[in-house]
């Protein structure tokens, strides 16, 4: 018997249609909570709190094995409904763009909450991302969505209970959060000297290539060396590489896997905060050029990502701090709840001895945000994935020019994003963000880094089109958007002529 499958998501995401088709295809019972309750529109218009209580009762009664349950748009946001669903089975959120949801809803049954759809969608988005996986439905056929949900079910069956699934059809994969690094069936590990000292033996016996630590390792010379070693060791297309380390190891090993024999499997086993929440997820692989970071690379999704939380205990303080540059980025993207959780963990970043209990939840929510974005826009074709570049346009320029740790530079890039956003007419968040960076021990003074050599590096930003940047502006905590702006204008905002 299969555990229950719950479908959540915004109104008109297709939960009923997908649930009914999925149940029919797999010979399971189908329950639509709205149908079980009755005249939803009238009930909501008359007494929404009462409707939510009744909805929770119907949900509790419907939970059973071999059942597909489609919920109303607000069900996951009420009380302990989401926690109850996650404890009982697999929760899949169906994603839909707001414009598409409004188009689907037009001419259908009454939806009292549709008049406030934009604000409601923003408020509920973090809740939907708390599902085990997000499967996109915008512009996709019903059969394709149903097949993707089935792929997610297959991946979930072989993963642990603490997991987020990146929904990419047949290439879907789990991101597992574990307490400790543990033995892993493997062919060859690529790692660096610092990580090997702490964690390599925990993976069990096997071959390994151990590299010098640091960003300079992410080079053509190291790439060539590794490929020659793989040939010498006789690896074929059935081989699997395990990338054990931070973002440098993950990017480099991923690029090797993407290109060696035109592509072999890779398991990402990140050991830093930056890698766990960002670099190891989404299939971006790369090496650096003297002109800038990650200018040569490929998309190559891993088969699996394993985030062992005990690896964080061995991080130097500088790496702890660097991780918080990415965590503050996710907080700005996701919303106030994650911002508060990251803030609660800031003393650990600044030097407190013990990691707070909330850190695991911060990592899970950050992973869930990126997984949902990658599932919608794997190769940066719809604009959604560009959001993950928040803070990176100026951050990468600072990192390349100074050798600063990635997360530290991203933190300064967030300050730059606040300054540009204010000039574009959005609220001024620079003071709030600089205070947050200081609380977590990160550099927060941007102006010393606004030099001619650093600003010149904006011209090699990977997302530049001609003289225009796809800059991520911040409207408010939890609401960011790509904005086309010229490199010249960004330079003028960041360093006015009077300050030059």
3D structure, described in words:
The strands form 4 sheets. Strands 6-7-14-11-10-8-9 form a 7-stranded mixed β-sheet, sandwiched between helices. Strands 2-3-1-4-5 form a 5-stranded parallel β-sheet. A two-stranded antiparallel ribbon has the order 12-13. The model has no long low-confidence stretch (mean pLDDT 94). Helix 11 packs parallel to helix 14 (358-376) and helix 15 packs across helix 16 (406-423). Helices cover 45% and strands 18% of the residues. Helix 10 (247-259) links the parallel strand 10 and strand 11. It has 500 residues and is of the alpha/beta class. The chain has 3 domains: 5-157, P-loop containing nucleotide triphosphate hydrolases (Rossmann fold, 3-Layer(aba) Sandwich); 188-365, Rossmann fold (3-Layer(aba) Sandwich), CATH 3.40.50.1970; 380-499, Dehydroquinate synthase-like - alpha domain (Dehydroquinate synthase-like, alpha domain, Up-down Bundle).
Summarize the model shown.
By secondary structure, the chain is an alpha/beta fold. It contains 19 helices and 16 strands. The longest helix is centred in the N-terminal third of the chain and has 23 residues.
């Amino acid at each position: 018997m299969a555990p229950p499958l719950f479908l959540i998501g915004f109104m008109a995401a297709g939960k009923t249609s997908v649930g009914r088709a999925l149940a029919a295809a797999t010979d399971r019972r189908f329950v639509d909570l709205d149908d079980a309750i009755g005249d939803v529109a009238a009930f909501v218009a008359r007494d929404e709190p009462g409707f939510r209580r009744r909805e929770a009762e119907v949900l509790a009664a419907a939970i059973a094995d071999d059942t597909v349950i489609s919920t109303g748009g607000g069900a996951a946001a009420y009380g302990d409904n989401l926690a109850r669903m996650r404890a009982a089975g697999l929760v899949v959120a169906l994603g839909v763009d707001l414009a598409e949801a409004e188009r689907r809803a037009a001419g259908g049954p009454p939806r009292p909450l549709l008049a406030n759809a934009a604000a409601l969608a923003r408020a509920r988005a973090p809740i939907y991302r708390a599902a085990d996986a997000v499967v996109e439905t915008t512009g996709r056929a019903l059969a394709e969505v149903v097949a993707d949900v089935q792929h997610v079910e297959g991946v979930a069956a072989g993963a642990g209970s603490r997991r987020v699934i990146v929904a990419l059809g047949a290439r879907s994969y789990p991101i597992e959060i574990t307490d400790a690094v543990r033995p892993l069936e493997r062919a060859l590990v690529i790692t660096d000297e610092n990580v090997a000292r702490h964690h390599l033996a925990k993976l069990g016996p096997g071959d390994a290539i151990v590299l010098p630590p640091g960003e300079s390792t992410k080079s053509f010379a190291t790439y060539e060396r590794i490929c020659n070693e793989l040939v010498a060791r006789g690896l074929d297309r059935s081989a699997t590489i395990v990338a054990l380390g931070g973002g440098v190891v993950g990017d480099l090993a991923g690029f090797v896997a993407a290109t060696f024999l035109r592509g072999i499997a890779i398991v990402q086993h990140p050991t830093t905060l930056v890698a766990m929440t960002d670099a190891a997820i989404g299939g971006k692989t790369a090496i650096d050029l003297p002109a800038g970071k990650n200018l040569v690379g490929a998309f190559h999704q891993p088969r699996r990502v394993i985030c062992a939380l005990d690896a964080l205990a061995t991080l130097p303080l500088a790496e702890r701090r660097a991780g918080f540059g990415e965590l503050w980025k996710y907080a700005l993207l996701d919303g106030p709840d994650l911002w508060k959780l990251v803030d609660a963990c800031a003393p650990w970043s600044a030097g407190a001895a013990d990691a707070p209990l909330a850190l695991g939840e911060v990592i899970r929510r950050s992973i869930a945000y990126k997984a949902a974005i990658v599932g919608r826009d794997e190769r940066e074709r719809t604009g959604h994935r560009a959001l993950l570049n928040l803070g990176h346009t100026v951050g990468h320029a600072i990192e390349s020019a100074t050798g600063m740790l990635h997360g530290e530079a991203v933190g300064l890039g967030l300050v730059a994003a606040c300054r540009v956003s204010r000039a574009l007419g959005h609220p001024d968040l620079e003071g709030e963000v600089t205070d947050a960076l200081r609380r977590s021990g990160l550099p927060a003074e941007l102006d010393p880094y606004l030099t001619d050599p650093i600003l010149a590096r904006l011209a090699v930003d990977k997302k530049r089109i001609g003289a225009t940047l796809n800059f991520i502006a911040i409207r408010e905590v939890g609401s960011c958007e790509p904005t086309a702006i010229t490199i010249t204008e960004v330079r003028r905002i960041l360093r006015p002529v009077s300050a030059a």
